[in-house]
């Protein structure tokens, strides 16, 4: 059984209902604000909103941020099925989630992301869906990095040439020649610093400028190393 494909809310083990409160806030924002772009996903998305990169690159493009710390694919699936994208008419939806699903196999993560994409597509048949690659993690080489790399390869093979779906590479430049990741890019070797956000999300911004100007994306959006 692939748990990535079974929509569930986060288990409220602390009993403070914070996750559901955030979901309800997103529901309100979706009704009150017009957005051309919606980011939805996990802590990488959530943390982006509190950086200079967000303010400089994405606020001018009329973006909403529906990221929640520690969300898994199945949690985002539940949120989408429970209204977060029902009252919006974005031109682009950016989906980043999966790094918290590492107890699943790479194939299960890929299939869960495809389930998410199909769910979004049913609600918004003509929206562009942008899927940034998952980022490496850990200061030194480790099996988790290998699993993440496998997920990215599976996604590339599965999403290539799909209708209005763009996989954008954001993981280049984080692993140095000695195999390490710098705390200047990821302060805890997972979450991004401001400079790390710039490195990861400038390619997303470049793609957004193309999509929002009604132009077709270039064939190769992978930044040079």
TrEMBL record:
<feature type="domain" description="SGNH hydrolase-type esterase">
    <location>
        <begin position="39"/>
        <end position="190"/>
    </location>
</feature>
<dbReference type="InterPro" id="IPR013830">
    <property type="entry name" value="SGNH_hydro"/>
</dbReference>
<comment type="similarity">
    <text>Belongs to the 'GDSL' lipolytic enzyme family. Platelet-activating factor acetylhydrolase IB beta/gamma subunits subfamily.</text>
</comment>
<protein>
    <submittedName>
        <fullName>Platelet-activating factor acetylhydrolase IB subunit beta homolog</fullName>
    </submittedName>
</protein>
<dbReference type="InterPro" id="IPR036514">
    <property type="entry name" value="SGNH_hydro_sf"/>
</dbReference>
<dbReference type="Pfam" id="PF13472">
    <property type="entry name" value="Lipase_GDSL_2"/>
</dbReference>
């Amino acid at each position: 059984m692939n748990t990535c494909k079974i929509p569930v809310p986060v288990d409220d083990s602390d009993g403070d209902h914070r996750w559901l409160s955030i979901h309800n806030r997103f529901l309100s924002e979706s009704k009150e604000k017009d957005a051309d772009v919606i980011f939805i996903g996990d802590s990488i998305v959530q943390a982006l909103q509190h950086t200079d990169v967000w303010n400089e690159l994405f606020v001018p493009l009329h973006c909403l941020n529906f990221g929640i710390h520690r969300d898994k694919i199945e949690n985002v699936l539940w949120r989408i099925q429970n209204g977060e994208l029902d009252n919006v008419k974005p031109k682009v939806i950016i989906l980043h989630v999966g790094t918290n699903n590492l107890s699943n196999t790479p194939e299960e993560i890929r299939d869960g992301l495809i389930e998410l994409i199909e769910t979004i597509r049913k609600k918004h048949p003509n929206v562009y869906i942008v899927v940034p690659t998952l980022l490496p993690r850990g200061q030194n080489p480790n099996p988790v990095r290998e699993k993440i790399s496998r997920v990215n390869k599976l996604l590339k093979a599965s999403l290539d040439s799909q209708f209005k779906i763009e996989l954008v590479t954001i993981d280049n430049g984080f692993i140095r020649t000695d195999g390490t990741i710098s705390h200047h890019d990821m302060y805890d070797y997972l979450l991004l610093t401001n400079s790390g956000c710039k490195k990861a999300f400038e390619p997303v911004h470049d793609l957004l400028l193309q999509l929002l100007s009604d132009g077709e994306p270039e064939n190769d959006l992978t930044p040079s190393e």
